[in-house]
Amino acid sequence: MNRTVARKFGSNVNRLRIPWRQPFSNDAVPISSTSNAANLEKESEDLRYDIAIVGGGMVGLALACSLATRPLTKHLTVAIIDSNLALRRKHFIEKEVHPDPRVSTVTPATISFFKDIGAWQYVEQHRHAYFDKMQVWDYTGLGYTKYNARDANKEVLGCVVENKVLLSSLLSRLQDTDFQKKIYPSRLTSMSILPNSSSLEVDSTLSVTASFTHGRLAKLELEDGNSLYAKLVVGADGGKSRVRELAGFRTTGWNYSQNAIICTVEHAVENHCAWQRFLPAGPIALLPIGDKFSNIVWTMNPKESSEFKSMSEDDFLKALNYALDHGYGPHPTSSLLGNADIFSWLKGVVSRSANDCFEIPPKVVKLASERMAFPLSLRHANDYASNRVVLIGDAAHTVHPLAGQGVNLGFGDASTLSSVISEGIAVGTDIGEILLLKKYEADRKPTNVMMMAVLDGFQKAYTVDFGPLNILRAAAFHGAHYISPLKKSIISYASGEQRLPLLS
Ligand SMILES: Cc1cc2nc3c(=O)[nH]c(=O)nc-3n(C[C@H](O)[C@H](O)[C@H](O)COP(=O)(O)OP(=O)(O)OC[C@H]3O[C@@H](n4cnc5c(N)ncnc54)[C@H](O)[C@@H]3O)c2cc1C
């Protein structure tokens, strides 16, 4: 670091050490109506933060944890705004209850990120299920693919974890650091940002009101009447992001006219494999979640979903086992397009799991949770960053859950954004500066857009029942099943490594 950068860095870190009242308190600071001007100014100083994270979901909390663990960002003052009551409790996981139906399949890249930010050790204290095998097939009976972690020299393909376990692990990790965060149990209602007055030097001695007037702070107003100020506002408030709307970010996207029914089910034996079958109306996935439980994500049209949600448990189980077995079409065999021999011209590239036979998933014997239905859509913000505002997670992009990638992309955003903020601090840049935030956007947009395109392509290719297309799909299954480099690329890409399938 040269001397100028070191001097800038030193003064920047000092500037970030602002007076702090009630650290780790979960109660928002009320605005007093005292007439004393000095007191008023002092109180508004207490409402000044470096970063306001709107949305304390999995992605918002992951960003906070990542900031808490980096040497240059761990001194930042951070406000987290979310009305979710779970954030007010330290431990909200009851061990003995059945797994919650809301789960995420986290990739090896996410597991590494959680280890880096010190949160994975908390996940491991609760129920979670690593899996190293996956079988994908479709209802036509023309093909199937088996993935094994060993095809890509990996130990696991992923891990299925309840969302509440991920959330509580991130929260516990955050509470075990001395990060200066404060949780506001409310919701953002409005936001004002004035243009930067470029003539003004960035000066820490400016009062909150003067900093706001000169465009150096954003002002946030909350549903409970509180307001606060921050240099940077992070929209981590999900698919219907209020931050995105208030900042005027436009989006591109569409609804899929599909709902996903999710629930927890029980088997007579333990399940260690992730299963996915493409049916005429969409995919059904059976994911291990530990003990004898699995999670179901079943995509179908909205009319069917309301029928399947309300039918009796017995009828639902029958329909489920039918859909996971021989319903809608026969079991696939390798004889229709041949076997590994047809790829014999590709010497030495036949995958190690190419001879693994098709298997029928373990039978479901009991419904172990309520059934929930979620409408599915694709949405992408045209920009992720503007002056003092940035979007992460579902606020920036919502994808189809067919490959379990949504929150993994969000964790990638959180990791990159905290790294970009850290780089900005190192050179003394204002962390709400658009040029800095655009670096984050430039890094994440291509990765997110590519994944969205791949998932949308899959969604479309597998919801059309048309003879020639069925044969092409079968050929794709066979290629992915037998050809080792292709299989390795697919596994690496789905694991969160940023290489594009087919190109590595
Ligand atoms: C059926 C289904 C299955 C899925 N399976 C997977 C999977 O296996 N793997 C995977 O990677 N992804 C999966 N996803 C996607 C994943 O659930 C989302 O990507 C993830 O929840 C996004 O996290 P987030 O923190 O960005 O947003 P959210 O989880 O939506 O959290 C947003 C938070 O913001 C808060 N909030 C909202 N508005 C405001 C406001 N105005 N003020 C303050 N706070 C506010 C909310 O209370 C919430 O806590 C699945 C999605 C669905 C629908």
Automatic annotation (TrEMBL):
Keyword Membrane: yes
Protein name (record): Ubiquinone biosynthesis monooxygenase COQ6, mitochondrial
Entry membrane topology: Peripheral membrane protein
Gene3D superfamilies from the UniProt entry: FAD/NAD(P)-binding domain
Keywords: FAD, Flavoprotein, Membrane, Mitochondrion, Mitochondrion inner membrane, Monooxygenase, Oxidoreductase, Ubiquinone biosynthesis
EC number: 1.14.15.45, 1.14.15.46
A Gene Ontology molecular function term of the record: oxidoreductase activity, acting on paired donors, with incorporation or reduction of molecular oxygen, reduced flavin or flavoprotein as one donor, and incorporation of one atom of oxygen
Catalytic activity: a 2-methoxy-6-(all-trans-polyprenyl)phenol + 2 reduced [2Fe-2S]-[ferredoxin] + O2 + 2 H(+) = a 2-methoxy-6-(all-trans-polyprenyl)benzene-1,4-diol + 2 oxidized [2Fe-2S]-[ferredoxin] + H2O; a 4-hydroxy-3-(all-trans-polyprenyl)benzoate + 2 reduced [2Fe-2S]-[ferredoxin] + O2 + 2 H(+) = a 3,4-dihydroxy-5-(all-trans-polyprenyl)benzoate + 2 oxidized [2Fe-2S]-[ferredoxin] + H2O
Keyword Zinc-finger in annotation: no
Superkingdom of the source species: Eukaryota
Subcellular localization(s) per the UniProt record: Mitochondrion inner membrane
Cofactor: FAD
Described function: FAD-dependent monooxygenase required for two non-consecutive steps during ubiquinone biosynthesis. Required for the C5-ring hydroxylation during ubiquinone biosynthesis by catalyzing the hydroxylation of 4-hydroxy-3-(all-trans-polyprenyl)benzoic acid to 3,4-dihydroxy-5-(all-trans-polyprenyl)benzoic acid. Also acts downstream of coq4, for the C1-hydroxylation during ubiquinone biosynthesis by catalyzing the hydroxylation of 2-methoxy-6-(all-trans-polyprenyl)phenol to 2-methoxy-6-(all-trans-polyprenyl)benzene-1,4-diol.
Family: Belongs to the UbiH/COQ6 family.
Pathway(s): Cofactor biosynthesis; ubiquinone biosynthesis
PROSITE patterns per UniProt: UBIH
GO cellular component: extrinsic component of mitochondrial inner membrane
Residue ranges of domain FAD-binding in the record: 49-315, 370-447
Organism, scientific name: Durio zibethinus
Chief place of localization: mitochondrion
Gene name per UniProt: LOC111279946
Subunit field text: Component of a multi-subunit COQ enzyme complex.
PANTHER family reported for this sequence: UBIQUINONE BIOSYNTHESIS MONOOXYGENASE COQ6, MITOCHONDRIAL (PTHR43876)
GO biological process, one term: xanthophyll biosynthetic process
